[in-house]
Write a structure and sequence with these properties.
- The radius of gyration is 17 Å and the shape is globular.
- Helix 1 packs across helix 2.
- The longest helix has 13 residues.
- The strands form four sheets. The chain has a six-stranded antiparallel beta sheet, with helices on one face.
- The chain has 211 residues and is α+β, with helices and mostly antiparallel strands.
- It contains four helices and 14 strands.
- The structure holds 2-oxoglutaric acid and fe (ii) ion.
- The site of fe (ii) ion (FE2) has 3 residues, from loops.
Length: 211
Amino acid sequence: EEVEALLSAGEAVGFKQSAIRNRGTLASNDTRRTSTSAFLPERKPGGRSSADADPIERFVRRVEEITGITRERHERMQVVRYEAGQFYRPHHDSSPFSINRSVHNRVGAGRILTAFLYLSDVAEGGRTRFPKVPDDAARTKKPARAPFLSFQPRRGTLLLWPNALDDDPWTNNAFAEHEAMAVDEGVKYGANLWLLQYPDALVIKSWGLGK
Ligand SMILES: O=C(O)CCC(=O)C(=O)O
Ligand SMILES: [Fe+2]
């Protein structure tokens, strides 16, 4: 039900060519990311709807419980869509924050955790792969293949990973680099919920996403 609700919310907003940040400025048509995406409306901290009536509300509460990070520090959810052949090359979800730590004005900065929910099964391709994390189990089974950690999308499965270092939240965890491999067949959907070091209000404002 949560998956269905997130898919319809994405459809309602409409999927657009995903933008990507290049040294702080937004660039679409980037060859590193060919998928489309939709940012869902902000979930107001004061405006908690009933979890019984709102499956997205149930999902958000579960993420709050699991991570201990409440919605003031959630970015707007982003639903992503990949058709066959589409991908997102290796990247880090959190921007480097060294330019001016005192002003939280760069979108994508301070994304300390990523919660990524698969909204569809993908039969072939479309894996989420962490090219800096050796996967010893996979290497033992298939020495020639899959030496790095990767996941096949399964509808309803949540991946949660740390983008920052525990003892220095402004420094990127290099192992958190990841990519969405090209989908071979079918359509892949997922939802990003980025959990922030600071409340999201300033980010939304500076990126022009808010009212
Ligand atoms: O689609 C995936 O498997 C990962 C998506 C992703 O990395 C992102 O949207 O930042
Ligand atoms: Fe990502």
